[in-house]
Specification:
mainly alpha
Length: about 150
């Protein structure tokens, strides 16, 4: 099966923009629906320091904006993984399906996989700023870097 380089870049861009929409919407949910003080109360209710809601909100919003613009998209996708890992851990007791009461772990784990895929695949088309820092080749050698 042959896939052109242009269509591969377009597919990566769709992935990047989809992840951006999710991250931005999660941040705005915290701000506009739950409110930041409400999110802080929730964080405290599950054993985290309530003040962590504020940097998590900023990280989600700024990370989502960076993905939207293609500003160090690979590195941002990698940096956002711990946020979703904690979300998956928080939802683990609720079961697999995210529609379960309290939300399950499937959705955060899927977002982790999608973020990891973006990191491995590249920035996609129309990325504003790319960087060679922390690319897969850094960890695994040139054979893993598909952006070459």
């Amino acid at each position: 099966m042959y896939t052109s380089a242009a269509s591969q870049q377009l597919g990566i861009t769709v992935l990047r923009l989809s992840l951006a929409a999710v991250w931005i919407s999660h941040a705005l949910l915290k701000l506009l629906v739950f409110t930041l003080p409400g999110t802080a109360q929730y964080f405290a209710s599950i054993g985290f320091a309530g003040w962590l809601a504020y940097p998590v909100f900023a990280f989600e919003l700024l990370g989502g904006m960076a993905l939207l613009l293609g500003f160090y998209a690979r590195q941002v996708a990698l940096a956002l993984l711990p946020v979703m890992a904690v979300a998956a851990w928080v939802h683990l007791p609720n079961g697999w399906v995210h529609t379960s009461a309290g939300g399950g772990w499937e959705y955060p784990v899927f977002l982790m996989a999608a973020s990891l895929a973006l990191y491995l695949l590249g920035d996609g088309a129309a990325a504003l700023k790319r960087s060679p820092a922390l690319l897969p080749a850094f960890f695994f050698g040139d054979a893993m870097d598909v952006a070459k």
